[in-house]
Design goal:
The structure is a homodimer. The first copy, chain A, has about 400 residues and is an alpha+beta fold. Chain A is built from 13 helices and 16 strands. In chain A, helix 5 packs across helix 11.
């Protein structure tokens, strides 16, 4: 008897047992097949990379969530990926190096130093799709439609899609000539929607009263589609960069609605939490059953530059474990046929036939008679029994 | 222009690009389906665990190949798994905690601090099957047959199966009362088949001349099936433990040959390298194309004890990346249909229909005419073109 409980797992780390694993594997296959049917090609990036490529363009948050280890071969620091998007961007820019549009997808393990939220796994399975080489909103429309289809196929009820734009806040910050410290204070206060604090910061840091007013409008621009009209009005006199970004958003809304039909679409022009490397339009899917985004994505156009080739880029990802948990679909595991343990050639042949027809055949090891066993304890609902010279499924 | 080549990957770490990834994913699904058809249930253990559970019963080699990191939540040491067998044993003993036979399988990432051999990946994808709760050789026979079937399904040519027994060497060591240092010197010399060194060690450390002779026989017992008869003769006067182990081996050979028919079966009674936690019968599959075992397994009966429940256990695993590399089967990726980018409802409907029929439909983003594009650059071989009011695949 040992006093160490060796079966205890770290917080936010979990085993997935057979019935849940079956659900997860079924979803994994269906969703990768869905991505494939839209032209997205599977890639398998490595679990570990040198830090200086793994964290190119990543936020501080992603950096802090990445486990670091020393490479015993080179002596350099490596990171265990907390995300696959940056790896896919490296593959597009360098390893594949194709001209034109490239569509990639993946479903793979990542690791986080700390849970990213309450009840959140530190060992998620990231499933995602990324589209490179196309700068217009047509790519974003395709990805938002694919994200919606992914959640529909996975059986996630009550999905709400929220659109935003990382560029508007950034454009205002740049026009107001805020330094990095003031920007990060403001960003942080905006994420908490701490209106008094924001007003105080703006009064201290921003001289231009029109710009100050635009900031104050921005942080209140969240809600249904009417937000878009309110934003056009509030930013009518804003810089060309800001109005161009609003027009992009309107284009995307038009494209998505034409393709998806009725849709629960919302806007939040200053909700920027959790966007790790995004530069433009961002989109996320929420459901009442889950406190965080179920799926999330957007544009991250300049990232490929660090890998030798700047490429337009947009994509989204989700966590298969969360999908399996929220899915309302039933995934029943087929029950098997219990067969005796004998080396009779006729039995070997029969079992092999049944298995190649897709049946599950479980061998009862030992000499007990199959007829006397409660097959349900072996996850079976039938038996293989010899009648005369023939083996019959009963 | 930066001087850091951010696309360089560490040694033994590789991207898997679409055509290879398709092959790997196809093999993954087929082999998990094969395991399922034999009654093995999928589990998904976490990528990371506390070290004191992850390395229970593991060899020093497995320990040295495991990356260690500090858990920021608990302050305890965690390891990133280098193997899944021990995790499966923990799940059987504790998380599942079922009575009777339990069959588990998995296909998942592991990570190694250093490559385990020349040209060996540090980020393998381990695929394996484990059988718990059955102590007789019937379980080993089933696993050897499943291992052979796995390699056959994967299209690996020229497979040779090698059987051994970790227990014979251990029994002789125990009878000779060798201390840990002498045992490890001898073990190491035996693995190098350094016969002069072995003879010297035996002359110095082993008094009993019969025992010394048995050691000398053991290290020469490798080759075809005649080895088994030679072993029976050499160990005729050996302890009951040794003869029982030889009888187990004979039983297994009989069982496997009856089920698999013609088979390239070999024996090596002292090749024990790379068996990390095994206690009894061991088996491995080799092919001329690959310098190391393609698949490997055996008995590790006492491991569950550390997790609260001692259980008979036997299993094997292989690396999906190696299988994909050695496979002689062709896996062709289906080509797609190129469709224009339009939000016409009739097009949306047609594309959605084609995709749900299993077709791959790639949208040509932008306004270019589908008829003017070289479809092969988009991995397509057909186009979707509007003729009158109908969309036709051409």
């Amino acid at each position: 008897m040992t006093s160490v409980k060796r079966w205890l797992l770290p917080d936010g780390v979990e085993d997935i047992l057979p019935s849940e694993a079956h659900k997860l594997e079924s979803l994994r296959r269906e969703l990768l097949d869905l991505f494939e049917s839209w032209g997205y090609e599977l890639v398998i990036p490595p679990l570990i990379e040198f830090l200086d490529s793994l964290l190119v363009g990543a936020s501080e948050g992603l950096d802090l969530h990445t486990f670091k280890v020393t490479d015993q071969v080179s002596g350099k620091m490596m990171g265990i990926r907390a995300d696959l998007t940056l790896q896919a961007a490296r593959i597009d820019a360098h390893s594949l190096n194709r001209e034109g549009e490239v569509r990639l997808c993946y479903a793979d393990n990542v690791l986080h130093t700390r849970p990213r939220g309450i009840m959140t796994s530190r060992v998620p399975i990231r499933l995602g799709a990324e589209l490179y080489g196309h700068a217009s909103t047509a790519a974003d429309v395709e990805l938002i439609c694919l994200m919606a289809q992914t959640l529909r196929s996975a059986g996630i009820p009550g999905v709400q899609i929220v659109l935003g734009h990382v560029g508007i806040f950034k454009a205002l910050v740049s026009e107001a000539r805020l330094n990095a410290e003031a920007e990060s204070q403001l960003f942080e206060a905006v994420q908490r929607k701490a209106y008094d604090e924001i007003d105080l910061l703006l009064d201290n840091k921003v001289q231009d009263s029109a710009l100050k007013q635009q900031f104050k409008e921005l942080i209140r621009l969240s809600g249904d589609e009417s937000v878009l009209a309110r934003a056009q009005e509030a930013f009518a006199a804003a810089s060309a960069a800001v109005t161009a970004e609003l027009n992009e958003l309107s284009d995307i809304v038009r494209g998505v609605k034409r393709r998806l039909g009725e849709l629960d679409l919302h806007f939040d022009l200053c909700e920027l939490r959790g966007y790790e490397y995004h530069t433009g339009i961002v989109f996320a899917a929420y459901t009442n059953e889950y406190g965080r985004a179920v799926a999330k994505g957007g544009r991250y156009d300049q990232l490929g530059r660090a890998f030798g080739r700047a490429r337009p880029a947009s994509g989204f990802d989700t966590d298969l474990k969360v999908l399996a948990q929220l899915s309302e679909r039933a995934f029943t595991r087929p029950r098997g046929i219990l067969a005796p343990d004998s080396d009779e050639p006729s039995l070997t042949l029969k079992v092999s036939d049944l298995r190649s027809q897709g049946e599950k055949v479980v061998t009862l090891l030992g000499t007990e008679d199959v007829a006397n066993v409660d097959v349900s304890t072996m996850h079976c609902d039938r038996r293989l029994i010899k009648r005369g010279a023939a083996w019959m499924v009963e």
